[in-house]
Design brief:
A: alpha+beta, ten-stranded mixed sheet, six-stranded mixed beta barrel, 26 helices, 59% helix, elongated, B: alpha/beta, Rossmann fold, 6 helices, 10 strands, 32% helix
């Protein structure tokens, strides 16, 4: 206890008081660390909120069900409910039908925003009691009152409290709803209690009797799924018996399967953004390292004195390590208000990106998960303490003998730049083989390890690079800029690892900037190319909310007839397709059957593997399927492997004839011939269609497109719930979603750069402070103020020049890993490599300019001091 | 071997050598020193710059270790001592006063004085009370809460002496204690060290260029090129 008290006292006397004396320096480091911590925390909390909302919603809707009977891409006939209820081992079976619906009239919220679609859940109020918990406000102990209204009044619905508030509804109000070809006025029979189903979708949910919803949607006799609750005595044989009752295509699975596949996709996204946000903390680590390392050197004599009067090396080590840890703790505390601000801004961006990319999420609350808070504190403190580890070890090696020497000297051991460079080169050489190592699903560990090794390797190269530049360049500088520039070069050569610390931070930030700029540019260019080549077409027709409702609803027969009628008219080509969401193992993907003859005429797949001409021939004949790169990466299937699936109750077993690029994000696509599917199922059902128009000029084609669009709106969209979109608008929407998704990335990148800029300014200032005596000796022997100024500027330029050059090389290598390793391991796709030269070239002079600005405080410090005073000290 | 007759030896050195590696060559700090200093002596170490005064003092203070030979101070074999034993030795056996004062700039006068005792594990209140007494005795009462940067040279050196005394060391070492002081303050510091020797019988070793301490010295050791040139006893 006494030792601990002594340590605290010494920490206060020796460390805290020193930090208090250099408030601005400390505040700068704290700002850097807190920005890093805030980014990390707010990104994790925002994605955590999305993940939590998704999981909760799925669990609440699934209720207590042990198993669920479902039909991927289709619906389950209601007639199975009765046999299931009779099956041995089944305690309860409850059908459920869901649909996203729109309020028909403007019931905009008070903010003036249009009310979003919400989930309408159809259940059997009697059968459902055993499976899901839900209740009605004001209901008795059994809480069935109000629930009975659902059965007795075919137009009754119960709504969640948040939805009631959003639409300003109260009991017995009328709510007109629209879906597909139906519009109906519903009566609000009551509000759901805030439990169970009433909390699903953040409470933006309504419940109706299943028959009411079937009638409203026209889905008579079918349900989404039947949830089953087993008796405690149920056996495996009972489960097999249930399975045997089901027709082909209808499957019995755990309710958690759909939830887990969605969660896995969100988790993968969380990992990517977490790593990206962690970079700000990593750059902040350089900032802490640089301050503590320079403090340890500047206070070397004091350390020797402490040692000479009885302090142990361990105590000195702990003093510095605690200083680092304390930077972490205070940085984390300072991050709390910044995180509160950031999370508000990131939440909608991130949940929007997740909804666009993976699964629909509706966030109703932000949980302050204690685990996330602890993780953020541990990461910030840990990384700060880690940054202090090496300086602390150097400090503990201060010899008490140095206290008696007239010139304390820094006495620090120097590692040879050549040795560091050799280690760096070894790390860089190991990057490629490590990145190719097999990775766990959705967890690109080898890619991240390779990235860390790459950063470390290039940072270790920096002392040698500085030494090299400092040896070769000074003679040239002397001829061009005279003695100050020469001395600057010599200092850069001799400073060793001191300048290398800040150059390492710059390398990290510069590499990150180059790599992300290249990745986003490559991604955008490839997606643009893909959208124009593979998502070609002048007009698109599909159901409104087809994505939201999982492409379950085919185009109305009247719309299909209209499309067939206009086919060939004035050179109009129609490319119909049928899209069905399926799962391969636990992995979700889309099966898409296309009219391959039209597709080959009008569009193009961007092949990654396989012989394009032969593959298309086979595809057109229905003798094979084409898989997207994402599907192939996620399932491990490749060209020549068999694709096996049950589609619409029909088994498909075909070879994969090629792999093509696709950037739809619901887990990949498998393309098949529509004609072959129709021949197998005997049904003609289209999910949507693309239209290609003719015209000798672009204007003619635009005019023809506009005319056809007006005709389709008049004849189809005004009568049926279909959306008619021009190809230009659709592709514009794809790029808008892309840009919105990467807006978060850009924010994270800018913050990392800001932290790096803080790092350079602090380090440069500290380097100058450390050499105050040396610089003032120069002044004393006749160096003018301009010469000193010029010297510091040249030092800054040389350091930043080396940082930019090495950072650029590291950035290009990193961009390769990001595009071909991490993206493939995380999302399953790669892009065509393309360097964003304009951004990179523009950044170079800007960063150089930043370095010059960063040198200003250092110059002011030196020039604002009397040489006599400095030398006297 | 030179010992004061009748008194137990506090310092015993035999063939004491300390060399340093400087690039490709070895530089001799001290070489082949044979020395015995009895308890209660006030010894001065004299010699030109580079004669080995500071090296010998650093060895006596446990700040450095001999390359060869033996050195025993108050029964502590400093040649064989481990890092931890040297730390304990510095805390318990010696107190040192430096030419450039070497006060910790962020600590007040009283805190600087307290620090060695606290590092030695002594209770804070007791240490503080004792330090206050020493500070007062050295005429620094008004300055006890000042930082070193607010003190004059003489005050700083008196604080350094107070710090060296706080653990009641048997051996008080001073490295050019008057080197950064004017003659008046220099005289005060030497008188103080002499008083500490005289009043409590504490052994004091002063490395110095000047002759201010000659009047109080019981033993004058002159070094030349790292070896003992002559020893004069009074």
């Amino acid at each position: 206890m006494r030792q601990f008290t002594l340590f605290l006292r010494l920490f206060n006397w020796f460390t805290v008081r020193m930090l208090k004396r250099h408030r601005w320096r400390v505040l700068t480091v704290l700002l850097g660390i807190s920005l890093g911590a805030a980014v990390f925390t707010s990104v994790r909390l925002s994605i955590g909120a999305s993940l939590d909302a998704f999981t909760r919603s799925m669990d609440l809707i699934a209720g207590k069900a042990d198993w669920t009977v479902t039909h991927h891409g289709g619906r389950v006939p209601e007639e199975f409910v009765a046999p299931l209820l009779r099956a041995p081992g089944v305690a309860a079976a409850s059908p459920i039908l869901t649909a996203y619906v729109h309020p028909a009239e403007d019931r905009g919220s008070e903010s003036g925003m249009e009310a979003p679609p919400f989930l309408l859940v159809g259940i059997d109020p009697i059968l459902d009691r055993a499976v899901r918990s839900w209740g009605v406000e004001g209901g008795g102990p059994g809480r069935i009152s109000g629930g009975t209204d659902l059965i007795t009044d075919p137009g009754a619905i119960l709504i969640g409290k948040p939805l009631a508030e959003l639409l300003r509804l109260k009991t017995n109000d009328r709510l007109p709803l629209e879906r597909l070809r139906s519009a109906q006025k519903f009566r609000v029979a009551g509000e759901l209690t805030t439990e169970g189903l009433g909390l699903a979708e953040g409470g933006k949910i309504a419940v109706a009797d299943i028959a009411t919803l079937q009638e409203f949607t026209g889905l008579i006799g079918v349900v989404d799924r039947i949830d089953i609750l087993l008796k405690p005595t149920a056996t495996k044989q009972d489960v097999e018996r249930i399975r045997s009752l089901l027709p082909p295509g209808v499957v019995l699975e755990r309710p958690s399967e759909a939830r887990e596949s969605g969660k896995m996709m969100i988790r993968s996204y969380r990992l990517n953004l977490s790593v990206l946000s962690f970079v700000s903390l990593f750059v902040g680590m350089f900032l802490v390292y640089s301050l503590i390392a320079l403090n340890a050197r500047a206070r070397r004599r004091e350390l020797a004195i402490l040692r000479s009067i009885g302090a142990t090396p361990r105590m000195i080590f702990l003093l510095f390590l605690t200083e680092g840890g304390l930077f972490g703790v205070f940085g984390w505390l300072a991050a709390l208000p910044i995180s509160t601000f950031m999370v508000r801004r990131l939440l909608s961006g991130i949940s929007g990106a997740i909804s666009h990319l993976f699964v629909r999420v509706s966030i109703d609350r932000l949980n302050l998960d204690p685990w996330e808070i602890a993780l953020s504190l541990a990461a910030t403190t840990g990384i700060s303490a880690l940054a202090a580890y090496q300086p602390a070890r150097e400090a503990m090696r201060a010899s008490p003998r140095e206290a008696i020497d007239a010139e304390g000297g820094d006495g620090a051991e120097r590692t040879s730049p050549r040795r560091l460079a050799a280690l760096g080169a070894l790390l860089i050489a190991s990057v490629w083989p490590i990145s190719r190592a097999p990775s766990p699903p959705e967890l690109p560990l080898p890619g991240y390890i390779a990235t860390f090794l790459l950063f470390s390797g290039f940072s270790l190269l920096s002392p040698w690079c500085l030494q090299f530049v400092g040896t070769r360049v000074p003679p040239l500088l002397r001829r061009i800029q005279g003695e100050p520039a020469y001395l600057a070069g010599r200092y850069v050569r001799d400073a060793g690892t001191r300048t290398a610390i800040s150059v390492g931070a710059l390398i990290t930030a510069m590499a990150l900037f180059t790599a992300l700029a290249t990745m986003v540019h490559s991604f955008r260019k490839t997606v643009d190319n893909w959208a124009n080549e593979s998502i070609s077409g002048d007009l698109f027709i599909r159901h409104q909310m087809s994505e939201t409702n999982q492409y379950r609803d085919p185009l109305p027969e009247e719309v299909v007839r209209k499309l067939i009628e206009i086919r060939g008219r004035g050179g109009v080509d129609i490319l119909p397709y049928r899209r069905i969401p399926l799962r391969f193992g636990g992995h979700p993907y889309h099966y898409e059957a296309l009219d391959m003859d039209v597709f080959r005429r009008r569009s193009r797949f961007l092949f990654v593997r396989g012989d394009a001409a032969r593959a298309l021939e086979k595809l057109a004949r229905g003798e094979g399927v084409l898989a997207s790169e994402v599907f192939a990466s996620k399932t491990g299937l490749g060209v020549g492997d068999r694709y096996r699936a049950v589609v619409e109750g029909v088994a498909i077993d075909l070879p994969i004839v090629g792999i093509a690029r696709d950037y739809r994000t619901q887990g990949g696509v498998v393309w098949h011939s529509l004609r072959a599917l129709e021949a197998l199922t005997g049904k003609r059902e289209w999910t949507g269609a693309r239209m290609f128009l003719s015209g000798s000029t672009e204007q003619e084609r635009s005019a023809a497109t506009e005319n056809l669009r007006s005709e389709l709106i008049r004849d189809c969209a005004e009568r049926y719930p279909v959306a008619v979109t021009t190809g230009k608008d659709l592709r514009g929407e794809i790029m808008r979603i892309f840009d919105e998704t990467f807006a978060v990335t850009t924010v994270l990148l800018l913050i990392a750069l800001l932290v790096a800029a803080l790092g350079i300014t602090t380090t440069l200032t500290l380097l100058v402070i450390e050499r105050k005596r040396q610089l003032n000796t120069l002044a004393a022997i006749g160096a003018g103020r301009n010469q000193l100024r010029s010297m510091i500027l040249w030092e800054s330029l040389l350091m930043v020049g080396v940082g930019e050059a090495v950072g650029l090389a590291c950035g290009f290598a990193l961009s390769y890993i990001l595009i071909f390793v991490i993206n493939r391991q995380s999302f399953g796709w790669t892009f065509i490599y393309s360097t964003d030269w304009s951004s990179v070239l523009m950044s170079l002079p800007l960063i150089l300019l930043t370095a010059l600005v960063a040198a200003i405080p250092a110059i002011r410090l030196v020039l604002g001091y009397s040489p006599a005073m400095a030398l006297k000290e | 071997m030179n010992a004061s007759p009748g008194a137990a030896p506090l310092i015993e050195a035999k063939g004491l050598t300390r060399t340093y590696r400087m690039g490709a060559s070895n530089v001799v700090g001290v070489s082949g020193i044979d020395l015995v200093v009895a308890s209660g002596e006030l010894a001065t170490l004299k010699g030109a710059s580079g004669s080995g005064k500071s090296t010998l003092l650093a060895l006596l203070a446990g700040l450095d270790q001999p390359t060869s030979g033996s050195l025993t101070v108050a029964g502590n074999d400093l040649q064989k001592a481990t890092e931890a034993e040297l730390t304990r030795y510095r805390r318990d056996v010696t107190g040192i006063v430096f030419q450039s004062f070497n006060l910790l700039p962020t600590l007040t006068v009283l805190e600087n004085v307290c620090l060695p005792a606290l590092l030695a594990g002594k209770p804070y209140e007791e240490t503080r009370s004792k330090a206050s007494g020493v500070v007062e005795w050295l005429g620094l009462r008004e300055r006890r809460d000042h930082l070193p940067s607010q003190l004059s040279g003489g005050e700083m050196q008196r604080t350094a002496i107070a710090r060296a005394l706080i653990n009641d060391p048997r051996l008080l070492l001073a490295d050019e204690p008057t080197g950064n002081l004017d003659s008046r303050n220099g005289a005060i510091v030497i008188e103080l060290l002499a008083e500490l020797n005289r009043a409590s019988g504490r052994t004091v070793v002063i490395a110095t260029h000047g002759d201010m301490a000659d009047a109080y010295a019981t033993m004058q050791i002159t070094l030349k090129d790292g070896a003992i040139h002559k020893i004069l006893r009074k």
